[in-house]
Amino acid sequence: MLLLTALNSPCCRFSYQRTNLPTLLQGNIQCTMAWCDTCDRYFPTRFSLIQHLRSSSLHNWCEECDVDFDSWVGLKEHWVQSPQHDYCQYCNEHFGDYDDYADHNDQFHAWCRSCNKFFRNDLGLHEHRRQSPIHSSRYCVPCKQLFQSEANLRSHMNSSIHRPRDIVCPGHNCNATFVSQSALILHLEAGTCRSGINRAIVNRVVRERDTNNIITDPSRLLTGPGSGGRNSEVTYSATGAAWNGYAYECYLCHNEFHSLPALNQHLASPRHLNKAYICPLSSYRERFNTLSGLCQHIESERCGVLRFAPVRQALDGFVSGMRTITAY
């Protein structure tokens, strides 16, 4: 037997009330017919009633919510306002979920996602983000780009998009230029400088010059025993014994890699170095395993330590100290 549920919404104009429906016998099966109040018609099955509601100009039916509205405007307002629907009223288009709906708005409409506001054109959206106290601290006006945080905006403003490459690498025979000290130090630590400077040399220079331990923990910034001289540091490497039957496994952090070279590249990175660099701000004291990581933290102005002259002077001194190095 087909059991149908009554609709109690005041805007609904059809019902499935059993008391009003005729009963038919087909063999030994008792069937109840569906009835449309508005059209005063019976339908042999619920499916045929649904087809009628979908196609008839007399109905404005929301199939998902099973509600019939008095007008198309009422149905459209329901789609726009209901959290059950991801509907674009401008394109009269439904989406499977909010992410698809939001991506559509970002691509085709002047829409502020966080405020859920639409604007007539991109200029209106631009002015909204430029003037709004909610967005202005995270909005790059020249690029018309909104960032997730103020720190992300600062990183963007410190990039080569907005800053000249006016910091010259002090390495011998290297003419590379950079937009920030952190980018320069990362270049040196990576061993890509033509002078031969690498991370071990950078750490040695810092250890020798940071005599007051402004940014370093001397107990952690040490050269490993038997590591090959003053320009060396503790290094790790793996062999075929790192294969665990499924992948090459790092014996320090247990991350898995598809190949032995990938594992050794991971071991050669600063991932497992001691966190010897410290943010000099006494209330912060965050630790980093590379000088470039500390510089990026300081340049982000997240802690405000860059305002202190000794810190700026110390960083400038480390960079200038690289000019005196003769790599070998």
From TrEMBL:
Q: Which Pfam families match?
A: zf-C2H2_6, zf-met
Q: One GO molecular function term? A: zinc ion binding
Q: What is its main location?
A: nucleus
Sorted keywords for this record are: Metal-binding, Nucleus, Repeat, Zinc, Zinc-finger
Q: Where is the C2H2-type domain?
A: 110-140
Q: Where in the cell is it found?
A: Nucleus
Give a yes or no for keyword Zinc in this entry. yes
Q: Gene Ontology cellular component?
A: nucleus
Name the UniProt record assigns to this protein: C2H2-type domain-containing protein
State the organism of origin.
Candolleomyces aberdarensis
